[in-house]
Structure formats: structure tokens, C-alpha cells
Amino acid sequence: MDQRRVVKISKYLSRHLRHDPGRIGLTLDEAGWVLVDVLLAAMARNGFAVTRAELEHVVAVNDKKRFALDGDRIRAVQGHSIPVVLDHPVADPPEFLYHGTVSASLEAIRRDGLHPMNRHAVHLSPDRETAHRVGSRRGRPVILTVAAARMAADGHEFQLSPNGVWLTATVPPQYLD
């Protein structure tokens, strides 16, 4: 499959499995799952026909592993702005995690810390390179180091998504460098 088609399908899936399923007539279950056949039918009804083979290919090659297939169901693994209960396992984080942002956000982050904004959780990367890629989406990136082990020791909970993204409710400023 052409890489442009892969990206187009991935973006379409992200929009409708993470943010706006109702736009194409989907109803996700409480954990964000929907039947693959229901998704494919909704996509086709809305002028974006995709085959099951294309869908499976996009899930398999997605560089960020944003989607999960479980038998006849599919969901986004994190990044939702709609109510879902992802139930990722609570895990002890490494000593440090990283967050990519842009300099325009630094003043507010230094003052208030990191907040999920319109998402369910703050997303943290396991390495500086990944955080750099994330921060680069909006301009010249700034990489923040999060004292994750210290946060956990102080009672903050971390979850680890299947694609290696660390999730937490918020990161107070005293844990940021």
C-alpha cells in the first residue's frame, strides 16, 4: 500500500476512534472498542472505503502503534478526548520520562505543570528522541525531563500503554526540568 494511503487511513482512524466517533455514526464501548465490520461500514457510508486488509496493514505498520486489534474489535490505545476507560496497567516508571513541547508553552508549564488538556492523561515518552519527534509536530521542540520515579514515590500513578507511551493524570511543576 502507498505510504500516503497509510497516513490518510491512520489519520482518519485517529480522528474517529480517539476524538469524534459520532461524526461517522460510530458508538464505541466504554473501553473505546468498536467492531471492525461496523467501523468499515461506517467509513464506507461516509465516503472513505477501506478494506479489512488495508485496515490490518495500517494497524500493523503504524509507527506509533496507535491502534489495537483484538479479534473482531479495534480501538485507539491512548490519546482520546472522549470518555473511555482504557484500563492500562499501573506500572512503576523509570527514573526519568520525557515530554516534547514548544517554547510558547514553557511559561504556563513552568507555572502550572503538565495537564492533559483535552485528553485523558498527560503523555510521556520513554526517551528523548521520541519526545523530540512529538514536540516537533508544532514547531521547534523543547524537551522536558520528568522525574517520574520521584513522582511515583510521592504517590502519583503511572500507566503504560501497549505502545510504550506513559500516561499520568498531571505532572506538577516541581517534577519538571
Give structural notes.
With 177 residues, the protein is α+β, with helices and mostly antiparallel strands. It has 2 domains: 3-76, Orthogonal Bundle (Arc Repressor Mutant, subunit A), CATH 1.10.10.970; 97-175, ADP-ribosylation fold. It has 6 helices and 8 strands, in the order αβααβββαβαβαββ. The chain has helices spanning 3-19, 36-45, 52-61, 106-112, 128-136, 148-153; strands at residues 34-35, 67-70, 73-76, 97-102, 122-124, 141-146, 159-160, 166-168. The strands form 3 sheets. A 3-stranded antiparallel beta sheet has the order 1-3-2. A 3-stranded antiparallel beta sheet has the order 5-8-7, with no helix packed on it. β2 (67-70) and β3 (73-76) form a beta hairpin. α1 (3-19) crosses α3 (52-61). The longest helix is centred in the N-terminal third of the chain and has 17 residues, at 3-19. The N and C termini lie far apart (42 Å). The mean pLDDT is 94.
Provide the fold topology.
Blueprint: H1 3-19, E1 34-35, H2 36-45, H3 52-61, E2 67-70, E3 73-76, E4 97-102, H4 106-112, E5 122-124, H5 128-136, E6 141-146, H6 148-153, E7 159-160, E8 166-168
Antiparallel strand pairs: 1-3, 2-3, 4-6, 5-8, 7-8
Helix pairs in contact: 1-3
Summarize the structure.
This protein is of the alpha+beta class and 177 residues long. The chain contains six helices and eight strands.
Descriptive terms for the model:
2 domains, Arc Repressor Mutant, subunit A, ADP-ribosylation fold, alpha+beta, 33% helix, three-stranded antiparallel β-sheet, 177 residues
